[in-house]
Amino acid sequence: MVAYDGQLVGTNDVANEEITTGQDMIVKLHSNGETDLFMMYQKTEGITEDIASIHETTFNNHVVIVEQSGDSKESWVKASLAPGDIYRQQSWNGGTLVVQVCSIISGTPDVAKVISFVNGKTAASCFVTEGECADTDKRFVVNSKLKGGCSWVRSNPGSRCNKRFVSSMCPATCGTCAYENCSDGGKRFLPNNAEKKKKVSCSWIKRRPDKVKARWCNKIGVSQICRNTCGHCSLARHHNVFLEK
Q1: Which of 63, 80, 227, 234 makes an SS bond possible with 181, Cβ 3.0 to 4.6 Å?
Q2: Rounded-to-integer distance, Cα 83 and Cα 199, Å
Q3: Is the pTM of this model over 0.85?
Q4: Does 241 fall in a domain?
Q5: Which structural domain range is residue 187 located in?
């Protein structure tokens, strides 16, 4: 089995032809000698809105893992994962199978970012692109003046980390990851590092309609700053583990 690092899209969005290249409706986890597992993103809407009410709380807006030994065989739900949840299955191809839901972001389509790997054999991370707790290279505003990114802070951290909200933009440099890795950066910033472009803030992005917010969060480096708004913070504080022995 190879590592999986991708995006799952719900059935209704696929039916509405909103799925794009690089997104999946169902992912099969297969390894010789192991019972196949299937991952899918369950969103109760449109053609899937008739899910029984007793199951809605458990499965709606979750990534569901189902076990099935073959075509037409009975299937079993192994886990229903919210953002930050982890499913582990021991003794899978000589290692431990890990499935983790990094984030779920509403939009067109709704997208669940999911990783899966066999510990010790393959690897994947929710934070390969943006970093678990990282500084931004975006230029941001301090005291009404546009400053450089965190390289500007690193030249004098003793003074500059104490300026209002600067540590939220540069938590690694300022040593504040322990309590700011799940909070939004508090400064307005240039999303494209261009002088004439509009400066934005995480609070402004948070107020956008879901599909607009999703587009902003998908811009390079934005979720690194707007960690809470974009559902991209460290998972250390939300670490529900479902273990199949």
Answers
A1: 234
A2: 29
A3: no
A4: no
A5: 140-225
Instruction: Decide which of 74, 102, 126 is a domain's last residue.
Output: 126
The reply to whether 64 and 154 lie within a common domain is no
pLDDT in tens, the chain (245 residues): 568 888 999 999 999 998 888 899 999 999 888 999 999 999 888 887 776 666 666 788 899 999 988 888 888 899 998 877 888 888 888 788 889 887 788 778 888 889 888 876 776 666 544 445 778 889 999 998 998 889 899 888 878 888 889 989 988 888 777 667 778 899 999 987 555 578 999 999 999 998 898 889 888 888 889 988 887 764 443 444 445 54
61 and 25 housed in the same domain: yes
> Is-contact 190 139, C-beta < 8 A?
yes
Residue 240, in any domain of the structure: no
**What is the tally of structural domains in the chain?**
2
